[in-house]
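#struct-help
A.M.: can someone run this one for me? Single chain, 342 residues.
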Amino acid sequence: MYRCYKRLIKIIVGVLVVSLISLSNPQNRVCAEGEYTLSTIAEAVQQINDNQYLIPLYLTGNKGIMGFRLYLNYDNELLSIDSITNGLVTGGGNFASDLGPEESASTLSVLWNTTEDVKEDGSLMYIVVTVKDNTTNQISIGLSYSQEDTFNEQWKDVVINCNDIVLGITAKEDEKKIVDNDNNQIPATVKQEIEKHIGNEEENKYIQQAESNILADQQIEKIGIKKIKNAIIRTLKEYNSKSISEIREEDEEEFWEKAKNNLIEFEGVKKGDIKNLNLKTIADQVSITDDEYYSELDSTATDEAKSEHWKTIVYIIAGIIICMVVILVIIIAFKRREKRNE
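D.P.: on it. Structure tokens below:
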């Protein structure tokens, strides 16, 4: 009898050991209730200019997601990330990245969350990158995620199969062109599923938003972020406000017009340079700290503007004097001719 019990115990222990080994193997892992796998993929990448690319990152297999944190890993000596904007899936809720104005890191995180499940496939975000090394022929951005920050509305884990972004960049200079994802490990079925969402009307809205941010970055670089901040701060103080969000909707048009005038009057920006400027769009890219708001505004730009203003006045007066002298000379010459004719 004792031998039978001993044999039975050995069998039970053996079964438990086999079960534990099986469960510890990631390939045999069974998802918990509410847990499922989604896939990310970069498709229909656009070349903006000779070294800048717009990368749409799509999500497929979505049965419901309420939040995530993604990590982007890359070689910052080869490329820089210029902007990250939300997409169709992340159009609502809170979308943020730790991308700074002088980004120099090699890892960035993107955090998104909302109040209920989003259950559709489509774009997660749009990433704009600039290739620093003209000799490189490939963009590589590793993708990973934080499991504790990735969940559905039941607070269950959502697994994301992060497919790295690997792009061959052989397009000609100044030619806007679609670049294929060279990551051969992505299943064809995943690519086919994503292709359904490329180029539809809803997605185009987010592409336009990403492209407008590219234009905003170019305008910021041209005008100077310090001048833009100064103009916005001056205008906010005129409205006794600390934040743009405090400006009433009915006052917005007037507010931005005054801000543009402040750029000209106090910051020395030429009127022609901001003729088609959408300062409201640019302001979305500019953050103003409390220290900047309360500090005394840099007078250098103001002095330059005043100098330019006085130069303009001097030129106008000089022009008027020259015109009067010319008219006077003509009148004298005309009178002398009349006297000779008499």
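A.M.: thanks! Residues 8-35, 171-178 have pLDDT under 50 and may be disordered.
D.P.: also worth noting: Residues 299-341 form the longest helix (43 residues).
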